[in-house]
Every structure is written in C-alpha cells, then in structure tokens.
Amino acid sequence: MEKIEAKIINNPQVEMILQGIVGIAELVFPDRIRSYYLTGSYADDTAVSASDLDLLLVFKERITEDERNAIWDLSDNTSLLAPMFLDLEGVGEDQIAQKGVQLKLASHCIYGEDIWPNVQLPPMNDYIREWMHDHPLHFMMRLARGQESILYPLDFPDPNDPYMGYGKNPIESKKDTKLLTAIVGQIATAIVIHKAHVYVPTKGDCLTLYREHVNDEWVDFIGQVYKVCRNQWEYQIPDEPSKQEELQNICKRTLDFENYFLLVYQGYLLSELKKEDEVARLKAIKKSGEVMYPDQAIDTALEDLKMSEDNSIRQAILESLTKIQAVRGSPNSAEFEQ
Question: What tens digit of pLDDT does each residue of 298-332 get?
Fold first, then answer.
C-alpha cells in the first residue's frame, strides 16, 4: 500500500492509525473506494486530546446501504483500538455535491485519487437549506433528546441531570461536553450561513464568521463554549466545583440558544413554504411535522397549500397537519397551546 501523505498530518500516531484504517478499508471494500479525505480538527491542525478523527471515504459511483452500514461498523470497531473516537463516513461519488464545502475548503486527500479539482461548492440556497433543515435539528432532536419531533419552546434534554442532559455523549456512551459543543456550533453555523450567505468550512471559521457577519447578543456565548468547553476543558466534565458551576450556567444558556434558533427557524420555514420551488416547499412541509410551534402560523401556511395539484405536496401536508393535530390533542396539548 502507498504511504499516507504524512506531511499534512504532523502526528506520527495519527498517521499510523490512518494507515491502519485505510489498509482495513481496502480489504473490506476491494476496488470500491476512490479517495480518502481527512476532515475536521486533525485536518486543520486544531485537534485537542479528545477530538474525533474524521475520515471521509469516497466510493466509486454510488455507495450501497450495505456498504454504508459496514462503514459504521468499521468505525465502531476500530474506535475500540484507537486512543480517540474514529468518525468514518462513506459517500458515493454521486453525493459529492453534499460534501462540497467540506471537501473543497477543509480537507486533505491522504490516499487514493484526489478528486478535489472536480469538487464544486453547492449553490448557496441549497447550502442554506441543508443547514437550516438538517444539521442543528439532528443534534437537538435525535441525539440530545432521542426524539423524531420537538415542540417549541424546548425543555432541557434531562432536567434532572446535573448538567440538564447536555453532559451526555450518546455516540460514545460517555459523559463529556462534545454534544453540548456540537449543538452550539451547529446552530451558530446554521445562523451565520442563513443570515450572511457565506460558506463555513470549519468550527474555528464559524466563530470568526459569526462575529464578522452576525455579531449579535449570542456571539460571546458561542466564543465561551468554543474556548472553555473545547479548548480549555478539552470536552471533559471539569472536576473543580467553580468550573462545574460555570458548565451548569453554560448548559442553561444552551437551552436559550436552542429556543432562539427555533424562532429563527420558524421564520425560515414560513418563507420556504411560500417558495415557488416545489422541492424546497416539499422539504419545508415535511419539516413542519417535526418542529412544531404553539401559534397557528405554520398551520395556516400549510392550509393555504392544500389546493396544490401536486399529489406529493398534498400528501405531505396531510401527514404534517395530522402530526401537529395529534400533538395538540395529546395530554400535553394545554402546554403546547400556551
């Protein structure tokens, strides 16, 4: 096997781990992987001791569901043998557009064919749509709360936990501040992309771009989370009582930031529901059944679209309205209607 390009890694231990991962992947997926790209903090040389090692595997043509599942299994199994969590992701060449910003602006090809010259940045509207609809909500809903739908305003993931549920890491089954840091970072990234229409390559770029383009009342909080939770504590739960109190205050503020994002998101949803672009409108309709609000603004917008000639639009509206009405008719409906 060819030697991995060590000059872009600057860490012999990481180079050895990557060499092993590539070797195993080449055996498991013979002649299927075109390129291996190092991304994340090890790619931009900002990793701390608890940082994940992120590797993107680009499969020739399309990746199958079996191959995708095998990548996840490989990630879990190899993480048991490494001093850090290994975050391996497989994509097909047909999905490269979805990874355009990461590949073009924040990655290094460590093995295989470098397809960087052929990678294009996604259209800005598609990029905004991806970030507003998907990334922050995945962390807020599924990872932090284990839910497929949420109600505004949110409560803490676990109000009875010392850190309100933000000190749990469900991916690695441990206690640290990775999830908290990710939630804040994902929200901040989505907001700066939405409001400033700029590409955000890395976590560090997010804070700089947020301060430059948004610079609202949240900028110092975002900086605090990045500086303290990531850089100072290296994602660990601190031992000192004074720092634990600081972390508790950060957790309380995180919930406020989540609810602030959901208000921004409501405005975005309403604007997307009015778009002439039917793909954008359909996506917004489906998300309306996942993120629900106590007022009738979304309901009214959905009702206005029920006369659409597109059957997929009408069906999606019916499904979302059914979900909303089920929540309003649940035992918690009084709280929902407030």
Answer: 999 999 998 888 899 999 999 999 999 888 775 54
How many domains would you assign to the chain? 2
Residue 107 and residue 129 in one domain = no
User: Which are the contacts of 23, defined by CB distance < 8 A and separation ≥ 6?
Assistant: 1
- pTM more than 0.85: yes
Contacts of 276 (CB under 8 A, 6+ apart): none
Q: Do the domain assignments include residue 63?
A: yes
DSSP assignments along 265-319, one per residue = HHHHHHHHHT-S-HHHHHHHHHHHTTEE-SSSHHHHHHHHTTT-S-HHHHHHHHH
159 and 187 in one domain?
yes
Whole-angstrom distance, CA of residue 308 vs CA of residue 321: 15
Q: What range defines the domain where residue 38 resides? A: 6-118
CA distance 23 to 16: 11
> Which residue's entry shows tokens 């976590």?
203
Distance CA 290, CA 98 (A): 22
Please report, for residues 45, 99, 199, the alpha-carbon distance to residue 107 in angstroms, rounded to integers and kept in the order given.
Answer: 11, 10, 14
232/245 Cα distance (integer angstroms): 15
